[in-house]
Fold this sequence. Notes:
Layout: E1 4-9, H1 15-23, E2 27-33, H2 39-46, E3 51-52, E4 71-74, H3 98-111, E5 116-122, H4 126-136, E6 140-144, E7 154-159, H5 173-176, H6 183-186, H7 190-203, E8 208-209, E9 233-234, E10 244-251, E11 253-254, E12 257-258, E13 270-275, E14 292-294, E15 301-303, H8 314-320, H9 333-342, H10 346-354
Parallel strand pairs: 1-2, 1-4, 2-3, 4-5, 8-9
Antiparallel strand pairs: 5-7, 6-7, 10-13, 10-14, 11-12, 13-15
Helix pairs in contact: 1-10
Amino acid sequence: MKKINVLSVFDGISGGFIALERAGIEVNNYFASEIDKYAIPVSTKNYPDIVRLGDIKNWKEWDIDWSSINLVLAGSPCQGFSFSGKQLAFDDPRSKLFFVFLDILNHIKNINPNVKFLLENVRMKKEYSDVITNCLGVEFIEINSNLVSAQNRKRLYWANWKISPPEDKKITWGDIRERGVDSECYYYTEKALQWLARHSRRKHKILSVHSNEEKMQMIEASHYKKYSFQRFFGIVDLPKNEQVVAAMRGRYLINNKRQDGKMLTKGKTQQYIEFRYDGKTNALTTVSKDNVVVPFTLPNRIPANEFFFRYITPLECERLQTVPEGYTEGASNSQKYKMLGNGWTIDVISHIFKGLLE
Length: 358
């Protein structure tokens, strides 16, 4: 396949370029329309030769040889369609930009009928997806990113070439999670835990904790917020800078005093984490819970089910979106969450692009 000219609107951090490279498709010129002042530097750092076009609403002023465009990419703003939003659909000024993309695509089609296109968006009501389908003249396919990554992320894809779902790589949260994360940056504070408790009671919502064998829930741009119902999940972990040996023991307590061995009528015992402060381990036994590594900045005895919860990290977001590690380096953590949450799962897009080679 010869080198192609690509027009990417709503380009974000240029995930389309990453996916094309990963699919083995060479790019001649990559024209990008993006206005986010934080996403553009990230994209430029990784792909300095991208041709910047500016605001999509000014597309008629762009100096492009429209007949040379081989592929048009778009991940149009989804806020109006998302089930978690206000359901304004095409009345939302951001989602209404789909029609600007449509004008551009039709303009190119009039000059080059063979141009290929790919549009991605969130799951939405059928009445909304029907409008897009009728405008583009192709049916969408729904693909869950969990086939190629460790997150559940269902998205709709419209393209004018054959698309099939990728094979399941069976990647889970344990395959990509960070270990020993900095406790000062990513752990829930006491204030945050109090907010979670109030929100849980008010909204009847339970904090989700994901095990290594599971998929992570979908990452979203709103993960930059410290208090958000869309960030309502936790990860049990150990901070890298505060660790010591402890044991998990079943104890029966009355007024926080152990009743072990006493001739009393006992209720159910509860599992507790018990810490050492002498730098030694407990005696090695055949029972793995007799020696566990835990942070020492806790009371000497806490219930095992009241342990640590932290946020997802930006690096984990890159891994969940199958973006190259360090790709968003240079941006603040808040902006990394936004850019990655708004972006594409690269390995899904790469799989879709491989259909162009057939």
